[in-house]
């Protein structure tokens, strides 16, 4: 299977300029001296998550003749917002297929970016999205299972390497594996001595199990839905799993309580509102020190979309 | 009176590299189309406030022969943390004089950065600081009333001009006026068509009153202490007031309720934890549209240090 290269990521970086924010590394003042920590705050991207990087790279690659026919995505989460936001930036029509249990606020937020929202029974999402693609000649923008999406997310790794060339450990959340595949590709090419470690909730630890088994191990949707980290309930595809096997050093897991308390820590100590999925890497830094290499560490804070009520609960 | 120049600010930018974070402009997705908004998130600086810029520039200017004798500051707020943090970065001893009513958590935070903390009755702060300077040959780092401090804060304006050259309105909190003086100097030099507007709480609106009167109007400490924006209770000096008269287009005021609700808006919509003082500019954007020029707007979010309990209260 062909893996993406760092050249693909360099090309993606050119394409997403002006759409994605070039986020800084934020040094933390509250860390152990032999393993200083920097945060990569992707929660500060326009729709509150790294997802716009991959969406922008994939959309920039659509041939001119196909652009007017628009894009389609199926997602109820950050990917939906990302595709809607980037499509408007690029002047493309977008249709987002969402399951009927999606909260109204999320549907309204997606519509506010100018996208058409198609509400369907949850089991019909892929079928309806594919039908829209066929009927309209639109382009499907998948959330992670595509080389252009992986390369777009990998631009985070380029920026880490540029800002902290002697980084020793990069912590990345893992769900479908697009973000981790992309970041690992960039870091292993540019900072070959750095370790790249994925982090997932222990209640959705299918990737850790898969890497241990050397093949993709399926966890049920029901099991993966138990974690509060609702952005980390997907599982790697063949494509992303091939990247992870080749380029990721390890995957560690964190508990629900560690995730919840770290949301509060990030708000009070780093002044960042992170969603639970975005907090897992800092949770690993704080609670899995024994399982991680020491040294200069970067934690990718992948997103910041959570309900105000949940934020208050986690802070109280 | 000599005002600082944009050349002073360019020189400051070179000096503070590696100490202050180069913060990005964050485009907001929830704004009116004819006046798009970007946030300048200075709450993400290492100690949670823009103050490290001025402190770093002032410390970098200390002659080599005087460095070992260290620095002194009097402050109970963000300036204390900033001087302590930067002094450690620069390898200089630091003594911070704080009033005896300072919360223990703030004293501990300052000590955690390696500074000596000298607790005194509130009326003795300046006297004790000056005595330490005289006894030790140390250098006083004032919070705003110094050209090097103003030039350091002005680097925020350089970054805004570089990232958004066609900016039309820059909103800046005003207290002692160092930040506003510096940013206005940079913006008026580099983006002469842009308006620079200060924002202060209506309960501490001495700067608005002073600009209207054409001379510094004193409000009592007691009156200025009423606002929740505890970083905006100081008043301009002769030096900063001279900059404001020359280079600031207007000062607008916001109410306590507007400040409080905007802290919640920034947390939920921009994923930033801002302290009340840091939220006033976004509050002005949201609630003083009629008093402001329309067009591309930048709001400086100056800091993010507030107690967890207050954050929960403002979010609830």
Label this structure with key terms.
homodimer, 6-stranded mixed beta sheet, 2 domains, alpha/beta, 4-stranded parallel beta sheet, Rossmann fold, globular, 15% strand, 316 residues, 46% helix, 14 helices, 10 strands
Strand content of chain A: 5-15%
SS class of chain A: alpha/beta
The share of residues in helices of chain A is 40-55%
- Strands of chain A, total number: 10
**Order of strands across the biggest sheet of chain A?**
1-2-10-7-8-9
Give me the CATH fold name of the largest domain in chain A.
Rossmann fold
Quaternary state reads homodimer
What is the averaged pLDDT score of chain A? 96
Q: What is the terminal separation of chain A in angstroms?
A: 48 Å
What count of structural domains of chain A?
A: 2
The ordered string of helix (H) and strand (E) elements of chain A is: HEEHHEHEHEHEHEHEHHHEHHEH
The largest sheet of chain A is: 6 strands, mixed
The greatest inter-chain interface is formed by: A-B, 33 and 33 residues
Question: Can you tell me about this structure?
Answer:
The structure is a homodimer of 316-residue chains. With 316 residues, chain A is α/β, with parallel strands linked by helices. The first copy, chain A, folds into two domains: 6-48 and 146-315, Rossmann fold; 53-140, 3-Layer(aba) Sandwich (Rossmann fold). Helix content of chain A is 46%, strand content 15%. Chain A contains 14 helices and ten strands. In chain A, α5 links the parallel β4 (94-99) and β5 (116-120). The relative contact order of chain A is 0.16. Chain A binds chain B through residues 21-29, 41, 43-44, 46-48, 85, 112-113, 264, 267-268, 270-274, 304-305, 308, 311-312, 315-316, and chain B through 21-29, 41, 43-44, 46-48, 85, 112-113, 264, 267-268, 270-274, 304-305, 308, 311-312, 315-316.
């Amino acid at each position: 299977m062909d893996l993406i290269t760092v050249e693909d990521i360099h090309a993606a970086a050119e394409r997403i300029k002006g759409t994605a924010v070039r986020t800084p590394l934020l040094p933390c003042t509250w860390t152990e001296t032999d393993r200083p920590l920097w945060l990569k705050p992707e929660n500060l991207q326009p729709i509150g998550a790294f997802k716009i990087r991959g969406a922008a790279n994939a959309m920039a690659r659509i041939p001119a003749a196909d652009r007017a026919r628009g894009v389609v995505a199926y997602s109820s989460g950050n990917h939906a917002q990302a595709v809607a936001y980037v499509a408007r930036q690029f002047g493309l029509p977008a249709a987002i297929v969402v399951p009927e249990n999606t909260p109204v606020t999320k549907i309204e937020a997606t519509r506010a970016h100018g996208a058409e929202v198609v509400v369907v029974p949850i089991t019909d999402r892929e079928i309806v999205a594919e039908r829209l693609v066929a009927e309209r000649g639109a382009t499907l923008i998948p959330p992670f299972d595509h080389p252009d999406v992986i390369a777009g997310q990998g631009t985070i790794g380029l920026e880490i390497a540029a800002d902290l060339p002697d980084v020793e450990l990069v912590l990345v959340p893992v769900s479908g594996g697009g973000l981790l595949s992309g970041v690992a590709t960039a870091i292993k090419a540019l900072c070959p001595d750095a370790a790249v470690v994925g982090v997932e909730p222990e209640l959705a630890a299918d990737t850790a199990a898969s890497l241990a088994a050397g093949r993709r191990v399926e966890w049920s949707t029901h099991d993966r839905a138990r974690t509060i980290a609702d952005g980390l309930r997907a599982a790697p595809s063949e494509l992303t799993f091939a990247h992870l096997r080749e380029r990721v050093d390890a995957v560690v897991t964190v508990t629900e309580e560690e995730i919840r308390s770290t949301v509060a820590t990030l708000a009070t100590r780093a002044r960042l509102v992170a969603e639970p999925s975005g907090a897992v890497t800092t949770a690993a830094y704080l609670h899995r020190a024994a399982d991680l290499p020491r040294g200069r560490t970067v934690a990718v804070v992948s997103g910041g979309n959570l309900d105000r009520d949940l934020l208050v609960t986690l802070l109280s």
